[in-house]
Fold each of these.
Amino acid sequence: MDSGYDLRKKFIINTVFILLIIFISYVLLKYGISIVSPFIFAFIFAYILNKPARAISTSTRLPHKLVSFFIILIFYAVAGIVVFLLGVRLTSTITRIVSMIPSIYDKQIGPLLMSAFRSIEEIVYDIDPAIVEVLNEGFTQFIRTMGETVTNFSLRLLRSISDIASSLPLFFIKVLLMVISTFFIAMDFDNLVTFTRRQFSQQGNKVINTIHQYIVNTLFVVIRSYAIIMFITFIELSIGFTILGIKNSILIAFLISIFDILPVLGTGGIMVPWVIVTLLQGNISRGLGLFLVYITVTIVRNIIEPRIVGKELGIHPVVTLISMFVGGNLFGVVGVFGLPVILSLLVHLNKAEIIRVLK
């Protein structure tokens, strides 16, 4: 029987070992994936395009490598054209909007603020005329500071766009590596898979097959879960915008519900600026209505997202919420979706008795 000292020693060793594994995994996921990301995406695209290439090759009796080559060529040509056109349009639109921000402030927001301040001065004058001069000086300084802040913010955004443009060479190198790797992997996909499987034992291949099937099914489940969330958000926004009498309410609700999938920005990325601008324009009732719609959508999403995603993935809503929060802070957008999937995979492997982590 182990003594108390031996038990404590074993506990400390196991704890240090687990923490070391967690630290190494974090470093690999945080920095290693970024380095090998072109090859990861190349394998994913090759895997996806392999099935249609095989089907066409079987039906037409053309060589599999030839069919894979042309399918990948067509895929990247279409994707490249679409990304290029969207990128050019998006960049020009953002640049135009950002350059217009100071003008919008000077012509619309500034005068609205001055009008609001004058109303406050009139109220204060009836109470104590001596305070008006102090308020007037403070308001003038506030307007000047706001103008400088808006201008500096606009300049910072424009510089950020320039910084993104300066990082394009490295991005294009990664894209080129990804494209070339996709061709090589796709045209020799079966041999690569066979070679990789030979490096593992029969039990190892069984684990790989289990993980592969579960990840494929889980990705479908995650997509379905967020499609449900997006649909619920769309219904809420459509009802709210229709009640407020907003033109093209259905179309606007659809666009915002798509934007809502992004965990960093979400509905607030559009609704909050919209609410602020509407209130500054003096339309208090519509501004408050939009704010109420935004609060409702946010509360409902925060309630249903862990439940829907957790239920589909087979993990508790609280665990789902914690994993999404931790994943988002550690790995960004990828972590929000990825960490719940990894936890779900661990639970599945534990239930299948492939690994023993949980009791």
Amino acid sequence: MPKQTSEFGRNWYAVHTYSGYEDAVARNLRQRIESMGMEDKIFNVLVPTEKKIKIKGGKRRTVEEKIYPGYVLVEMIVTDDSWYVIRNTPRVTGFVGSGTTPTPLSAEEIDILMGRMGEAEPKHKVDLTPGDAVKITDGPFKDFEGKVGEIDEERGKVKVMVSIFGRETPVELDFLQVRRV
């Protein structure tokens, strides 16, 4: 790595890790920063997650999902020492950037990311796609079958085209009121 000094300033960097090991890498980094006395160069280690609502087996669950699987974000001043500490942490494969020079994330990217992480209301996540055949499990159209027309993940709603009196009619339902056939 080319010689760098603290003149480059404090920035956020994306560190590539083995997928599935993001939390372990973050824990390891925090321990290494403390044990090696790097608190003045490496300030924050973050695994970006957001809450999503998943529906499985007709039950709604709120889950924490990683926004960038395989990546950990680190706020640091890049120096030879801080680069070495991060780069030689177990299960870290490298920094995001060209060659041996890490590329900092822009302030705009960090603001967007922090906004996504700070959202109190979880997003709905459902494994339906337009055109899927579904059966309505609740409400006035219980036991009717139809095809998914539109999906509104923000509101947790799905429009199902149901044949009523020989005519296709759109019916708006909650994700919990339908299941895939």
